[in-house]
Write a structure and sequence with these properties.
alpha/beta, six-stranded mixed beta sheet, Stationary-phase Survival Protein Sure Homolog, Chain: A
Length: about 200
């Protein structure tokens, strides 16, 4: 697994050296998790055009399963009360048009982002890279390829012909982005720094 981490870091370090990439950012821990929002901010500050489309609720352990929503948001609502019960199965943040949720599995969320949201957001330009994570837990082990939703979103994207990389923070802190302290030692900001080599 160590070599895979080095390969992922090398790929992303190369991609990060090019300013202005069209990046689709997703995960399996929800669009409102601290890790993904910190990484979103870091990549944007690096000069990339970042579109975040994450599951409405935590979808860990779903692997590459492709499950589309069959209803609007049901109780108890989106993760960390980020989406109200009865809201549409997908939606956009009211204050930041680059942030979307989708009430499907990670692979289905990636598919929705690729086919529906990204063509509008990127004005029909191609997605240069899909970044999935940083996952809150550990994604080590021989069976994680089929178990991890974080990885499932990436191999769906690769099957669609888009370069993708998955990151695992291993900080095991499932919490809302609203709890981010803004300090460099906040676990979410540390995860973002590892994900984005150019982060301060």
């Amino acid at each position: 697994m160590r070599s895979a981490v080095h390969i992922s870091s090398a790929i992303f370090a190369l991609a990060s050296s090019v300013a202005g990439l069209n990046i689709l950012l997703t995960n399996d821990d929800s669009w409102a998790s601290a890790n993904i929002r910190a990484t979103f901010d870091s990549l944007q500050q690096d000069g990339h055009n970042v579109l975040l489309v994450g599951p409405a609720v935590q979808q860990s352990g779903k692997g590459g399963t492709f499950v589309l929503p069959t209803s609007n948001i049901v109780a108890p609502g989106g993760e960390f009360d980020s989406v109200k019960v009865g809201a549409s199965f997908f939606g956009q943040n009211v204050t930041n048009p680059n942030l979307f949720y989708f009430n499907g599995t990670p692979a289905a969320t990636a598919g929705f982002a690729i086919d529906v949201v990204a063509p509008i957001h990127f004005n029909n330009e191609s997605i240069d890279l899909v970044v999935s994570g940083p996952n809150e837990g550990q994604n080590n082990g021989p069976y994680l390829y089929t178990l991890s939703g974080t990885i499932g979103a990436t191999y769906y994207s690769v099957e669609r012909g888009i370069p993708a990389v998955a990151f695992s923070a291993g900080n095991s802190t499932h919490r809302s982005f609203t709890t981010n302290t803004g300090l460099p030692d906040d676990p979410a900001n540390q995860a973002a720094k590892v994900t984005d080599p150019n982060a301060a």
